[in-house]
């Protein structure tokens, strides 16, 4: 998918993250990758049953030149290809970022709770001084 609205912003461009619309394009892999190294990554084949390649190609052919909503966090190119291959919309970098943010948030809550508890405990102990 190529984002619309930004001239020259291909799928690997940082500029592609700012558009909210994308157009499905059909291009040769060697033209898109240029001299960059690439590899086929069907990393979820062990978790999900992939659709037959002929069916995937048929679906993609029907989508060429159509415009879709694009979101870096919920509707990006990885969501798109996983939906086509497995029928499951997912993006591991997005999931990893959400997981990391959740773990960090829980850690900060635990830390701040510990600090508040310690502060409260110190005040309790101060209140128990020998002033009777």
Automatic annotation (TrEMBL):
InterPro entries xref list: H-rev107_PLA/AT (IPR051496), LRAT_dom (IPR007053)
Domain (LRAT) ranges: 1-93
Keyword terms of this UniProt record: Hydrolase, Lipid metabolism, Transferase
Family: Belongs to the H-rev107 family.
PANTHER family named in the record: HRAS-LIKE SUPPRESSOR - RELATED, PHOSPHOLIPASE A AND ACYLTRANSFERASE 3
Protein's recorded name: Phospholipase A and acyltransferase 3-like
């Amino acid at each position: 998918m190529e984002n619309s609205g930004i001239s020259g912003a291909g799928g690997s461009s940082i500029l592609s993250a700012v558009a909210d619309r994308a157009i499905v394009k059909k291009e040769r892999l060697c033209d898109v990758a240029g001299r960059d190294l690439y590899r086929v990554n069907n990393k979820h084949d062990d978790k999900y049953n992939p659709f037959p390649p002929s069916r995937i190609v048929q679906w993609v052919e029907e989508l060429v030149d159509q415009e879709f909503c694009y979101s870096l966090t919920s509707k990006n190119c990885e969501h798109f290809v996983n939906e086509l291959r497995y029928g499951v919309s997912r993006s591991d970098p997005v999931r990893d970022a959400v997981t990391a943010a959740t773990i960090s948030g829980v850690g900060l809550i635990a830390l701040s709770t510990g600090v508040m508890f310690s502060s409260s405990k110190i005040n309790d102990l101060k209140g128990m001084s020998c002033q009777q």
